[in-house]
Amino acid sequence: MKVISTKLPGVLVLEPKVHGDHRGFFMESYNHQTLAGLGIEHTFIQDNQSLSVEAGVLRGLHYQLAPKALTKLVRAVSGAVYDVVVDIRKGSPTYGQWIGVILSAENKRQILVPKGFAHGVCTLVPNTQLLYKVDDYYSPEHDRGIAWNDPDLNIDWPVSNPILSDKDRQQPSFALADNNFVYGGDLS
């Protein structure tokens, strides 16, 4: 497994070793022992899957407040997304900064999104399926979000008129979003 650091500390892109031949390929998409050996020690307890049937579906920017904050390990099993992660830890040197990476069934990349970061994806092709490993359970009362098009974040999404859920259409601005993350604080 190759680990690629990003400008957001703790947000990592993972590239698995892929063994391919004329039949197809084999890869280990997750191995707790391998990741622990790379310093990535999370206990994932649930897998989630999403399907977006159209290109231009935007989901996010989502997070859960502490103490039910989530670390996610995300990968595309079909199709492709532009995956965005935003640092929302108050006092962080990278507070309000974001990164975007393409995750696809073809490149087999994964992204590790730690607690204290908002996460969103925009589908680049129809019939895109994502798998998310998470280290805690969904908690509706801790579920929060930020407007995908917040001008203070100025995210360079690949669409200008995305397909949104009602929930994502009504998310607050970054400045007004409910957020209890503090850089260096306990995020559990």
UniProtKB/TrEMBL annotation:
- Any idea which GO molecular function terms this record carries? dTDP-4-dehydrorhamnose 3,5-epimerase activity
* Active site (catalytic residues): 62, 132
Q: Which Gene3D superfamilies match?
A: Jelly Rolls (2.60.120.10)
Name the pathway: Carbohydrate biosynthesis; dTDP-L-rhamnose biosynthesis
Q: SUPFAM superfamilies attached here?
A: RmlC-like cupins
GO BP: any one term: polysaccharide biosynthetic process
Query: Per the record, what are the reactions this protein catalyses?
Result: dTDP-4-dehydro-6-deoxy-alpha-D-glucose = dTDP-4-dehydro-beta-L-rhamnose
How does the record describe its quaternary structure? Homodimer.
**Family designation:** Belongs to the dTDP-4-dehydrorhamnose 3,5-epimerase family.
As for what it does, the entry says: Catalyzes the epimerization of the C3' and C5'positions of dTDP-6-deoxy-D-xylo-4-hexulose, forming dTDP-6-deoxy-L-lyxo-4-hexulose.
Q: What is this protein called?
A: dTDP-4-dehydrorhamnose 3,5-epimerase
Species of origin reads Paenibacillus silvestris
Q: Which gene encodes it?
A: rfbC
